[in-house]
Design goal:
The chain is built from 13 helices and no strands. It has a domain of about 90 residues: Serine Threonine Protein Phosphatase 5, Tetratricopeptide repeat (Alpha Horseshoe). Helix 3 runs antiparallel to helix 4 and helix 5 runs antiparallel to helix 6. Helices cover about 75% and strands about 0% of the residues. Keywords: Repeat.
Length: about 230
């Protein structure tokens, strides 16, 4: 039994370290020709490997070969689509297939969906998925979900909503969250009053953080330069 598990982990290590599709296909063939061809753990790793290599079509094929795919399997396939710029509709289609297959989405599923919306600049859809995970599936949004929504709000110039989102996070926001908003203040042509309001919030919520002072300094330097 131990020897069998060691062989599985050997294959897993090879797949994880693979960064080349050609080599990945060779490993894929080795797995299919071995006693582990129906091992879901290795099947999931193959799908993930192809996704990271940007070969989504091979990821699809590997996914079809996964024996009794579970939530992890579906999440990996949806992430492969999202990370490689495929349409939100296609990622969402896999969510529906996942539900039909009897598997409930989790936080990881919705992170891929919200991220896909972020890549496409689809704020309305991202907000819809953000609400669905909270109210329909009783899932608690994590930092990654908030970052994607925050980035979309900031890019859309909806800075007041972005600020409100940060202030109502169920955890203390880190400097990158404020960095996104402060950067938007510098590029969206907002008012000096709004910039000052954001800067004050940073000082209040991130008191003692050197990074906060640097962000604020950069913001005001940019504003001063823009007026010259």
């Amino acid at each position: 039994m131990l020897a069998r598990q060691e062989r599985i982990e050997h294959y897993a290590s090879l797949i994880r370290s693979c960064q080349d599709t050609r080599q990945g296909r060779q490993l894929h063939e080795r797995v299919l020709g071995s006693e582990f061809r129906r091992n879901r753990y290795l099947g999931n790793l193959l799908v993930e490997m192809y996704g990271k290599c940007g070969d989504v079509e091979s990821a699809r094929q590997a996914f079809r070969e996964v024996y009794e795919p579970n939530t992890i399997s579906w999440n990996i396939m949806i992430a492969a689509l999202s990370d490689n710029g495929y349409s939100v509709a296609e990622a969402l289609g896999h969510l529906y297939l996942m539900l039909l297959d009897g598997w409930e989405p989790n936080e990881v599923t919705y992170l891929s969906l919200v991220s896909a919306c972020g890549h496409a600049g689809m704020l309305k859809d991202a907000l819809s998925h953000f609400k669905a995970m909270t109210f329909d599936h009783r899932l608690r949004p994590q930092a990654g979900h908030f970052r994607s929504i925050l980035d979309l709000l900031s890019r859309a110039g909806r800075l007041a909503e972005a600020k409100d989102l940060i202030q109502n996070m169920p955890f203390v926001p880190e400097t990158p969250a404020w960095a996104t908003l402060l950067s938007a203040c510098g590029t969206q042509g907002d008012s000096r009053q709004e910039s000052s309001s954001v800067a004050q919030s940073v000082l209040e919520m991130r008191s003692g953080s050197c990074g906060s002072y640097v962000l604020i300094s950069n913001l005001y330097s940019a504003k001063k330069y823009a007026r010259q």
